[in-house]
Amino acid sequence: MKREAGSHDGAQAFIRLASVTKVYRRGDTEIVPLRELDLEIARGSFVSLMGPSGSGKSTLLNLLAGIDRATSGELLIDGRDLARLTRDELAAWRARSVGIIFQSYNLVPVLTAYENVELPLLLHDLSRRERHERTMAALETVSLVDRSSHFPRQLSGGQEQRVAIARAIVANPPLLLADEPTGDLDRASADMVLGLLERLNREHGRTVVMVTHDPLASARAGLQLHLDKGTLIDAVEGAGGARKP
Amino acid sequence: MILLRSAALSIRMLLRSRVRATLAILGVAVAVFVLCAERAVHSGITEATAANERDTRLIVYRANRFCPFTSRLPERYADEIASMPGVRSAIPTRIVVSNCRASLDVVVFRGVRTDDAARAIAERVRLVDGSMPAFLSRSDAALVGQALAARRGLKVGDRFQSAGITVTVAGIVDADGPQDRNACLVQLPFLQSAAGGAQGGEVTQVEVEVADPSRVREVASAIDARFASDRAPTTTRAEKDFVARAAADLVAIANFAGWLGLAALVAVFALVANAIVLSLEHRTRELAMLQSIGFPSRILAWGIVVESAAIALAGGAIGACAASLTLALGRFSLGAEGVLVEFRPSAATAAAAIALALLVGIAAGLVPALSAARKTIVEGLRDA
To answer: What is the 3-state secondary structure (H, E, C) of chain B?
Structure first.
């Protein structure tokens, strides 16, 4: 089953998966979290991935993030075949092209909000002043300039996740991947984080792919993809949107 | 540039983990302190006992005696030795020690004739405070070695008592040899009378300077042959050989202490490795996150090695400085049977200890660094 999400006629897909399968072994058991998956996602889409535990949505996110490799099939992002990249090239690609937002924020506890956000920029050839400007701009985007000198333990869960979002966007990557970004948040904080993702998608043109269990969060996306047993079973356009054929 | 930024980041993160960093650095500092102390003892032993071809000094001792309390030679032996071929000078010396056993604070009184004291001042020691006239003007005057004066807080004009003998400090002297730096030079007749017993006309040893270094063995044999049939037969040895035999127990202890030095290095390795491994166990997810945002695994490994090196370097520097300061201020010397071995701290020893600690620290960080770098990002994110 092939799905094309948010692409316009004639436009080349930003993300393209062709017959992607992921297999790994646990002891004597062979596990296939993704099976012959075909998928295309257009640049500038906001896509949510839903499905029960074990459906393969986190595995798919890991493949898109370049932190795991497909066992077979082809995965191209912005025309680049990730399977052909060496480990170091993949790391360099991640630093330039993708921002990842985790459920549990994954901030470094001994670094301030500012230092956490600045981390990805340490890999770029930027002066201290340029790093400062971009870090402050990212913090401005998530409305946390006044918390820049705070350590993660001094922030609320919602603020921590906003710092994580600032870290994800500071290097200006075209692709944002979020793994249950609202899973640990109360409703108000979750709304704020989702609003931020929407804004980054709408106003800054970032392609956002978000894994979630929360139907309300999923409904904020332009397209909801449903996975089960490693295959794509359905695609629904966001917030009451029409079901795609 | 990325390497520098990554190193700075690692050090910043280490400094922010104050308890972990402090404990690890303190542990390394203690180990390096022990290493430096051991090296200082070793260096002192080497200085006191390692002979070289330019040595010209002999010690004439009573045959089959090994303690200053039992070695008694007629004072006249010195004059007879002085007239022998190849001998430049012979100083009859009475030795009285405050403690015959191994001790860290032994006072060794060396009683010499006044004219010999003047010769000693000229040849072996340098007067750094006080004066010779002051020494010659009163019978209980003493020229105190600089190390002993520093250890006991003595200055010119002070009176001090040890081994039941009270002397007045007439001068402070420095010397190249540890025996002179730690001794208290007094007039021979005074010491012969102050030490008690019917020992007038008797000395403990004769210190002989040979004119030609190549004839040291020949002169020693000649001296022993000369007195072989006298009432007090002698055994004559090169000074450093004499010190090595007298301080054989100290040498054995120092050799054992060498194992302590090795153990200190193993402790540095274990402490740094333990600090890094424990730290990484709690930072699996953090490292995976750093990889996920683009840090290459080799940069992460580099950061971990920088962290272990920083712990070792800081601990090494603190331990080496503390040891150097303690040994320099304490001016410790280990005495046995009247001979003294100084603890000799030096900048070279401290630098070598710091370098060793750094190397061991880097080695200790390598395995955990490589292991962490080999872990896949997915594993790291799942393990936390």
So the answer is: CHHHHHHHHHHHHHHHCHHHHHHHHHHHHHHHHHHHHHHHHHHHHHHHHCCCCCCCEEEEEECCCCCCCCCCEECHHHHHHHCCCCEEEEEEEEEEECCCCCECCCCEEEEECHHHHHHHHHHCEEEEEECHHHHHHCCCEEEEEHHHHHHHCCCCCCEEEECCEEEEEEEEEEECCHHHHCEEEEEHHHHHHHCCCCCCCEECEEEEEECCHHHHHHHHHHHHHHHCCCCCCEEEEEHHHHHHHHCHHHHHHHHHHHHHHHHHHHHHHHHHHHHHHHHHHCCHHHHHHHHHCCCCHHHHHHHHHHHHHHHHHHHHHHHHHHHHHHHHHHCCEEEECCEEEECCCCHHHHHHHHHHHHHHHHHHHHHHHHHHHHCCHHHHHHHC
A119 contact residues in B (CB cutoff 8 A): 9, 290, 293
| Chain A residues closer than 8 Å to B383 by CB | none
ipTM of the complex: 0.89
**Residue-wise pLDDT tens digits, A132-164:** 999 999 999 999 999 999 999 999 999 999 999
Predicted structure pTM score: 0.78
- Please give the residue of chain A at the shortest CA–CA distance from B18: A110
**Terminal alpha carbon distance of chain A:** 11
Q: Are A120 and B285 an interchain contact pair (Cβ–Cβ within 8 Å)?
A: no
C-alpha angle A22-A25-A28 in degrees, rounded to nearest 5: 145
For strands B125-130 and B165-175, give the pairing.
antiparallel
DSSP A61-113: HHHHHTSS--SEEEEEETTEEGGGS-HHHHHHHHHHHEEEE-TT----TTS-H
Measured between CA atoms, the residue of chain B closest to residue A173 is B293
Percentage of chain B beyond pLDDT 70 is 96
Beta-carbon contacts of residue B258 (< 8 Å; ≥ 6 apart) = B38, B42
Q: A-chain residues within 8 Å CB-CB of B17? A: 110
**Alpha helices by DSSP H, A85-186:** 87-97, 113-118, 128-141, 157-169
Instruction: Name the B residues in 215-234 with CB < 8 Å from any A CB.
Output: none
